[in-house]
From TrEMBL:
A matching Pfam family: TIR_2
Claim: Repressor is one of the keywords in the record: no
Protein's name according to its UniProt entry: Toll/interleukin-1 receptor domain-containing protein
InterPro entries noted in UniProt: TIR_dom (IPR000157), Toll_tir_struct_dom_sf (IPR035897)
Domain TIR: 111-254
UniProt source species: Flagellimonas nanhaiensis
GTP-binding keyword on record: no
Length: 255
């Protein structure tokens, strides 16, 4: 078993034996925090919480299906308790590394193996930082951005060909990104379609404060960092940890 499989199995056992009793939510949160203290890696803690979140969310939906015809019931004591628990789980997860998952079970209709970076040229310095972190792995990762286009090539065609081969799309969000006509018309639609229908995965890094939440086609994807903590606000070490996790999650998705 991989480390992730072990931790997810531990989370399932923990839920079965330690949670779901008659305890108050705050008591269950304390149990979770105590269990997390035995996991030294932030990534392992994130995996543990992610598994708990999935279990609790599924149980909530199962309850709604059985008791309320699949609909939320704000007056239901079980739902109130479960929603509170999910709030605390998400709060804890928000300060930990994001665990990337390809939630689309559909097989790609053709070979996808590229990592495509979509960014505004006004944010090129951030791209350079990310390139530095991917550089040690370029023999195993086909890392593509528009600087790869050779002089004389038809650049729109090159970009579209790269998108058609994209397995992981990294979107570097900022106000300049959201305001780019080319990104919004030529890059985002095919990337989002690939994620929806053809097995690609979207990873979002929020570079600067922006109205990310106003774009439903984007905010349906959990960002690698919360909107309240964009890269521009981060200290050097925190920023480096974010980029390391971005590479780690990308490598996992490419396997």
């Amino acid at each position: 078993m991989t480390n992730e499989e072990i931790i997810r199995a531990e989370a399932k056992d923990f839920y079965e034996w330690q949670m779901g009793r008659e305890d108050e939510v705050i008591n269950e949160v304390d149990k979770i925090k105590n269990r997390l203290s035995s996991l030294y890696s932030a990534e392992f803690k994130a995996i543990f919480l992610d598994e708990l979140n999935q279990i609790v969310s599924k149980n909530l939906q199962d309850h709604r299906n059985d008791a309320h015809n699949g609909e939320p019931n704000p007056g239901c004591a079980i739902e109130i308790k479960t929603e509170k628990l999910l709030f605390y789980l998400n709060q804890e997860m928000s300060i930990l590394p994001k665990i990337a998952k390809n939630t689309n079970a559909r097989e790609s209709s053709h070979m996808r193996n590229k990592v495509f970076v979509s960014y505004s040229h006004l944010n090129k310095s951030y791209l350079n930082d990310i390139k530095r972190h991917f550089k040690p792995f370029l023999k195993e990762i086909d890392f593509w951005h528009d600087e790869n286009i050779q002089p004389g090539a038809k650049w729109k065609t090159e970009i579209r060909n790269a998108i058609d081969q994209t397995k992981v799309a990294i979107l570097l969000l900022s106000t300049d990104f959201l305001g780019s006509e080319f990104i919004s018309t030529d890059e985002l639609p095919p990337l989002l379609q690939a994620a929806e229908k053809d097995g690609a995965t979207i990873l979002i890094v929020i570079l600067e404060p922006c109205l990310f939440e106003e774009f439903p086609n984007l905010n349906q994807y959990q960002a690698m960092n919360p909107p309240s903590n964009p890269v521009i606000k981060m200290e050097y070490s925190e920023k480096e940890e974010l980029y390391v996790n971005l590479v780690r999650q990308t490598k996992k998705l490419l396997k």
